[in-house]
Design brief:
Strand content: 35-45%
Number of helices: 6
Distance between the termini: 49 Å
Radius of gyration: 19 Å
Length: 251
């Protein structure tokens, strides 16, 4: 795991594509981009939040600063495999990500007992501060298939584009080792594209997006899951609670 990047700082733009837009753009990208070494792979996540979903509720309000905490694996891991505990922050359009690599059990000890895992002092302090402040608990499992592309001329530090499809979620079995099954997040087939770059998006890429009539949009997988499914359920449960107590419920 020593070769895996544990800190990121970059600009990210999201786009929601139809299958037709994806096919056309993907074909046009072949001139300047190539699929990275991982090819098509599955990304699995468990998102943590407070009991009342304070982190995602704040995030969907689009503040200047927001943060998320999740566990991530590439494919369904075995219990002895390393996974990542990640803090993802966004401030004034720049995304910062810090993460620690360890096994599922080791990361659970960090979350629940405050155990310190091998990492830089800065990442350790960030992780411990967030865990003490929010006391986050597992809330949602999200998985999807991803294809990532990198620039042919500058694969290490240039433009990077990811395409995510077959996004699925669940609220039970919130363990990365428990398989990647789940309910579809979106009712229609859509591909979520992220354009990631340390600098501005190159002009040739802007031209391709314009040619394909693809425009940036706001999309969060966890945010969409919360708004479409969880918030509705929470509202319904609260309403039932007030009715059962003979109280008036005000929406």
């Amino acid at each position: 795991m020593s070769a895996v990047q544990l800190n990121f700082q970059r600009f990210e733009k999201k786009y929601v594509l139809t299958p037709e837009q994806y096919d056309r753009l993907f074909s046009l990208l072949q001139h300047d981009m190539k699929i990275d070494q991982y090819g098509l792979h599955t990304i699995c996540n468990v998102y943590y939040d407070t009991d009342h979903y304070d982190l995602i509720r704040r995030s969907i309000q689009k503040p200047v600063y927001k943060e998320k905490f999740r566990l991530r694996s590439y494919g369904v891991p075995e219990e002895s495999d390393d996974i990542f505990a990640e803090i993802k922050k966004k401030y004034q359009g720049i995304v910062y990500k810090s993460r620690i690599a360890a096994t599922w059990d080791e990361i659970q000890q960090m979350i629940k007992e405050g155990c310190v895992l091998p990492a830089s002092r800065q990442i350790q302090n960030e992780m411990q501060w967030l865990l003490r402040r929010y006391r986050p608990v597992p809330k949602v499992y999200l998985a999807y298939e991803r294809i990532a592309m990198e620039e042919k001329e500058n694969p290490a530090g240039g433009l990077r584009i990811t395409f995510d499809r077959n996004i699925r979620w669940r609220r039970d079995d919130l363990n990365l080792c428990a398989g990647d099954a789940g309910q579809p997040l979106l009712p229609e087939e859509r591909i979520i594209m992220e354009v990631k770059t340390p600098l501005a998006v190159p002009l040739w890429m802007v031209s391709l997006l314009s040619e394909c009539r693809i425009y940036p949009g706001s999309f969060s997988k966890y945010g969409t899951c919360y708004q479409r499914y969880i918030a509705v359920s929470e509202f319904s449960d609260s309403k039932k609670y007030f009715i059962q107590r003979g109280q008036t419920y005000v929406k």
